[in-house]
Amino acid sequence: MPYPLGSSLWVKCDDGEWWPATVREVETELLLSMGSEYDTCIEFYHDPGNFYPLDSTSGGVRLLHLAVEERDKDEQRLFNVSATKEAVRRLLEERSGTPTASPTEDSQPYSAAEMRYMRSLVDSVSPDSAAVMQNSLKQEGVNISRRNIRRVARKERSSKSKVSRSRTSVEERSTVRLTSSLGSTQSSKSTNPTPPLSCGRSSSSWRRRSGGRGGVEVYGECVFQEAVDAATLDVLRAEVFGNPDRFVLSPLYRFLDVLGAVSIEGESIETTLPSPAAVNEEPPQGFSPSRRVLLVPLSSSSYNHTDGWLESFEFENKRIAMELFVNSLKVVTPPNPSVPSGRESVAVKTTPVADITEMVSGKELFSLRVHFTGLMEDATLWEGYIVAVYVERTGVDLLAERIVSNYHSSPAQREVEGVVDVQVRAVCPITALPLSVPVRACGCEHVQCIELQAVLMHCDRTNVWNCPLCWAPMTPETIAVNYRLKEWLDSNRSRVNKVDFIVETPPGRNLNVVWRKNEPRKIDNIETLE
User: Which of 55, 240, 443, 501 has a C-alpha 20 to 30 A away from that of 223?
Assistant: First the structure.
C-alpha cells in the first residue's frame, strides 16, 4: 500500500472532478477479490460510509496537502471548485477538529442569471470551444452545470423571500391561536365539531403534501420568479425569433417583439410580464385584431423550440401536468407536434404556442403562474423558458397569395421542370376536392400536387411543415406551384369534376386530359315492392 492509512488523497472520478478521500483499512484478501490491480481502499468525503477499491498508481490519484504552503497552483485550484467545495469543507473540518463555515451565498462569485448566460454562450459555440471554456471556468471554481445553476437560483429565491416567510409565519401563528380559541368555544356549545379555520395563505399556495410534525398538512408555495433581464431578451430577439435560420413560429405569424420571459426549473412559479400596452402606444382605434400575444415554450438548451410543453401523464396513480394561468385564468396549451416513428430526423417543426391576447388586453402588466401537479422527487419535470411574444397574424389566404405571387415574380425558380408523360390527379389527396392552386415541395419525389390552402392549414394545425405524402420539407420558401396545371384548372373550372387525370407534356405543348368515361348502367330487372 503506497499511501499510509489515514492519508488524504485527491481522486479523479467519472464526472471529471477531483474529489477528496481518505485511505481506509481493509483486509488484503477482500481487496484482492475485487481485482488484482487494486492496492488501496478509500472513503470519499462526499459519500461517507462507503468504501471503494483504488489503484493508487493510476494517473487519477494524487496526494492531498493540508498545509497551504505545500500545495502547487494546480492543487490550490482543486480547493476552490464549486462542485467539490462541500466535500472539501468536511475534510478540513475533520482534520482541523474545529467546524469550518459552510459556503454561503456570498462565496458564490456569480448570480444564477449570470451563470445561465454563461451556459447559453457555452452551448452556442462548437464542442471544442465549449470544452476549452468549461475547463477555464472549472479552474476558476465556477460550475455552470444546470444542477448547480438551479441550486444557486434556489438560494437566491430563499434569500429574497426570507423576510416574507418570517412575516407569514407570525401571521399563521396568530391565526392558529385564534383558531384554537374559537374551536374550543364552538366545541363547548355544540357536539358537532366545527371545521378549523384555514390559516391565511397567499394565493400562490399550490402543492399539498401530507406529513410534518404532529400530522400537520404542509402546503408548498408557488414562489415568485423574477422575469429574465434585458440582455437575455436581446438574445431571444436576435438569435431565436429574429434569426432567419431558425424556423420557430408558424409562417402565419409575423414576429414583432419579445415582451418578456421567465425561466422555469421544474418548480411552480409566479411572475409578472408586460403586455403590448406597456411597450407600445395604443392607437385611438385600439390594437388591430391581427396583433396577438403568444406564450412560446423554449428549452434551456440553446433555446430549442421543438420540445414543446410538458404533456400530462400518469405516475403512481397521480396525474403529472404543467398548468398555466394568466391573470388567474387557465391557459389551454396546444398539443406538441406529433411525428411518426422514423420521421423525426426530417421533421420541420414550429413551436406550439398559446394565444393569450384576450386575457391581457387592456392591461399593461399581466401575471403568469406555472403550476406543476403531482411533483416527482429528484426529477425536473420541465426546464426552459416561457416567452411572451408579440406577433401579427397573417391569414391563410394572404400567405397563399404571397406564395403564388412569388412564383409569378420568379418563374425560373418556381416552375416544375423536366416532368413529362406522367399522370396527375385533378383532385387534392388531402381534401378529396378539385384542385385550385396545385403545389408540391421542391424536394417531393412524387408529381402529384396538393391544394395550397389545404396544406398550409394542415401544417399550421400540426406545427409540422412537411409534405403529408412524402415528408419532404414544405416551408413556404420550398413550395413550388405547378403553373401550367393551375392555368388549365382556372380556364376549365366547370369541367374539373369530369377529369380522370392530366398528363404532363413538354413546355410549349398543351396538357393531355383524360376524361372520365360515362358508362350507362345496365338494369336487368325491376321489381315492385309492396
Answer: 240
The pLDDT value given to residue 207: 36
| 337 pLDDT more than 60 | yes
- Is 196 inside a domain boundary? no
Beta strands at 223-224 and 269-274: parallel, antiparallel or unpaired: parallel
Domain boundary (394, 414, 431) is at: 394
The whole-model pTM stands at 0.57
Amino acid at residue number 470: C
- 207 in a structural domain: no
Say whether 133 sits in a helix, a strand or coil. helix
- Picking from 306, 346, 369, the residue whose alpha carbon sits closest to that of residue 470 is 346
The torsion angles phi and psi of 415, rounded to 5 degrees, stand at -75, 140
Residues 6+ apart with CB under 8 A from 388: 258, 259, 260, 261, 273, 274, 293, 294, 295, 296, 356, 368
Instruction: Identify whether 223 is part of a domain.
Output: no
DSSP-based three-state secondary structure for 475:
coil
Last residue of a domain, one of 394, 423, 454: 394
Q: What is the dihedral of CA 89, 95, 101, 104, to 10 degrees?
A: -10
Residue listed under C-alpha cell 421543438: 306
Say which residues have a Cβ less than 8 Å from residue 247's Cβ, sequence separation at least 6.
348, 350, 465, 475
Q: Name the residue range of residue 460's domain.
A: 397-515
**Identity (one letter) of the amino acid at 269?**
I
Count: domains in the chain? 4
Return the residue matching grid coordinates 400537520: 216
Quick: pLDDT tens for 284-332. Answer: 777 889 999 999 999 987 888 988 998 888 887 888 888 999 999 999 9
- List Cβ neighbours of 180 (8 Å cut-off, separation of 6 or more): none
Judge if 442 and 346 occupy the same domain. no
Does 416 lie in the same domain as 389? no
- Give the residue carrying C-alpha cell 412537411: 466
pLDDT tens by residue, 48-84: 878 888 888 888 899 999 888 888 888 888 988 888 8
Query: Can you name the residues that pair with 19 across neighbouring β-strands?
Result: 11
Render 382-414 in DSSP notation, one character per residue.
-EEEEEEEEEEE--HHHHHHHHHHHHHH-HHHH
SS3 of residue 390 by DSSP: strand
CATH code of residue 23: 2.30.30.140
Does 344 share its domain with 355?
yes
Supply 82's cell numbers.
464549486
